[in-house]
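Both lines are given unchanged directly below:

***
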Amino acid sequence: MANYTAADIKALRERTGAGMLDVKKALDEADGDQQKAMEIIRVKGLKGVTKREGRATAEGLVAARVQDGVGYLVEVNSETDFVAKSAPFIDFGNSVLEAAVANDVDNLEDLLKAESNGKTVEEQVTEAGALLGEKVIVRRVARLKGAHVSQYLHKTSKDLPAQVGVLLAVEGENVEEIAHDVAVHIAAMSPKFLDETSIPENEVADERRVAEETAKAEGKPERIIPQIVEGRLKGFFKENTLLDQDFAKDSKKSVRQVLEEAGAKATGFVRFRVGN
């Protein structure tokens, strides 16, 4: 007869993020001892790391922190949402964020070498994968410095950790409220660039070429094609640049307008969405 209860299974699943079958097997092998079962899960997980190499990791979380005028944003991924919402995975994400902040990193290569809790992030990735029984990765990290940096984390589901993270740098006096509102806007409207000047020249050239070819294919008169192209480029800028977008809380105004009215100026932003 099994020397454990359904409550023991539930507790160990919550602690490790492991699947039901793996937890039951570990408890059987450990004769119901939770700590021993946890170690069995970890050891078996380490043996399976190479088998998980090619698996997709589309779930996960984002975590952010602003410290001394610098914002840090990280994304860590797992295979399933069950693991993504587990306490060990959330702790892992927070440890990765701690490493980013403590070592002031702005790129993935340096982050993986950085340490927190006495271990490099790369070592923590291996251990987390072993414990959770899934492939886990650190996907990316961003660092943003500014006069005032606002952070915003958004949950797309109440059962999951934050899936969307934003950092926004703003200049001006008493800008906390408008910075927060614009950060929320960024999370919802997903602009790709700050303004027109932030867009790479080759992307603008590609949009211009496509607009011109489309106008010709539609049989538009040659004399009005330049105006059509400029109009379509304006639409592209409005859709993709933060300052030209209609403000989510008041679509009669652009983000640029609401910032100017508040005496604020946006100088940069970063937006992560898990899996995108």
